[in-house]
């Protein structure tokens, strides 16, 4: 499948005559710019330190994710099988993990994260 350029925009889209933000795979419905987290497909989570909700998000993440890097503006966390195991032994449920990710994520969290 090749990428085609949607006339009138500077955004590439897989389907002609369809704007990028209208595409169901990358719709921006649910975008919350005030939230600090970006949940990525490689099991890493980026946390923007400048966000007013960062402290609450950090406290939630620390229950089930490992801090990998902590530079000045964006901290990186990773969810690993061991971090999930440790969370479960401490009494954290999968609903609490999915709830934390959903509550503090800038973008909608993928369905596989909430299973």
Defining traits:
single chain, 115 residues, alpha+beta, four-stranded antiparallel β-sheet, 3 helices, 6 strands, 24% helix, 18% strand, disordered N terminus
**What value does the Rg take, in angstroms?**
17 Å
For the largest sheet, list the strands in their spatial order.
3-4-6-5
Structural class: alpha+beta
Question: Could you list the spans in which at least 5 consecutive residues all have pLDDT below 50?
Answer: 1-15, 17-23
Counting DSSP E segments of at least 2 residues, the number of strands comes to: 6
Shape: globular
Which oligomeric state applies?
Answer: single chain
Mean pLDDT: 81
Give me the strand/helix succession. Answer: EEEEHEEHH
**Helix proportion range:** 10-25%
Number of domains: 2
Largest sheet composition: 4 strands, antiparallel
- What amount of the residues lies in strands? 15-25%
Helix-strand blueprint:
Layout: E1 4-5, E2 12-13, E3 37-39, E4 44-48, H1 54-61, E5 66-69, E6 74-78, H2 81-89, H3 94-104
Antiparallel strand pairs: 1-2, 3-4, 4-6, 5-6
What do these coordinates show?
This protein has 3 helices and 6 strands; from the N terminus they run ββββαββαα. It is α+β, with helices and mostly antiparallel strands. It folds into 2 domains: 1-28, no CATH class; 31-114, no CATH class. It has a 4-stranded antiparallel beta sheet, with helices on one face. Strands 1-2 form a two-stranded antiparallel ribbon. It is globular and about 30 Å long. The model is unreliable at 1-15 and 17-23 (pLDDT under 50).
């Amino acid at each position: 499948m090749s990428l085609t350029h949607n006339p009138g925009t500077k955004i590439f889209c897989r389907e002609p005559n369809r704007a990028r933000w209208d595409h169901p795979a990358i719709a921006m419905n649910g975008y919350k710019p005030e939230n600090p987290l970006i949940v990525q497909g490689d099991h890493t989570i980026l946390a923007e330190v400048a966000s007013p909700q960062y402290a609450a998000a950090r406290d939630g993440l620390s229950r089930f994710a490992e801090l990998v890097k902590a530079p000045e503006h964006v901290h990186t966390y990773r969810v690993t099988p061991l971090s999930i195991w440790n969370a479960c032994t401490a009494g954290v449920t999968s609903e609490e993990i999915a709830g934390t990710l959903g509550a503090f994520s800038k973008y909608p969290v993928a369905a596989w994260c909430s299973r």
